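user: At home tonight, take the chain set out below, taking as long as you need, and be ready to discuss the fold:
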Amino acid sequence: MRYKAVIFDLDGTIVNTLIDLANAMNYGLDRLKQPTHTVQKCMLMIGDGVSTFAKRALKENCQELHQELLEIMKQRYRETFLKKAFVYDGIGEVVETLRKARIDLAVLTNKDQDIAELMVEHFFGKGTFWHIAGVTNNKPIKPDPGETLKIVKSSGFLSKDFLLVGDSPVDIETAKAANICSVGAGWGFRGSEQLKAAKADHVIDKPLEILDLMA
């Protein structure tokens, strides 16, 4: 195959986590007597980490509630993150095909590390992805390329051997910063037009198109 490894974003790329994220944030907002948001509006707030999501969910004049909202939301999400989440159609087949072809698979996400690991292992089984990189207290989040470059280095491959698949401009920016070919997942939270505007190397509408790019 043309590439030797694929890095996948998580939320909005391989797993649809939207409803659980929105419900957890709205739970926190309601607890703090703040206005809640529709699922569609929440979708536009997601992608830059949960802390930024919480800031965007609050009114400008209520930002002093940010830390409290973040803590409530994160606790609620830990209790409910698998209630409505599901793997996008076609992703399972893509992952299995790439594994059989001995393509190295990794996940790079702005989701907390422990939740990312639990979610990936729940849906795909332990060991399917050789590296799962989420957020911890001492790591910068995407679009910082640091974690991406660590994945490349630990693989033993070169940047040109990788694809990075993600659904947001943040993912495209991350790939570019790491000199990796970027693939925009048009089925995700941002849609094809934003990914094209971000100048993704490829924008696809269905997960199975990843296999075409690998050929």
Remarks:
- The radius of gyration is 17 Å.
- The mean pLDDT is 97.
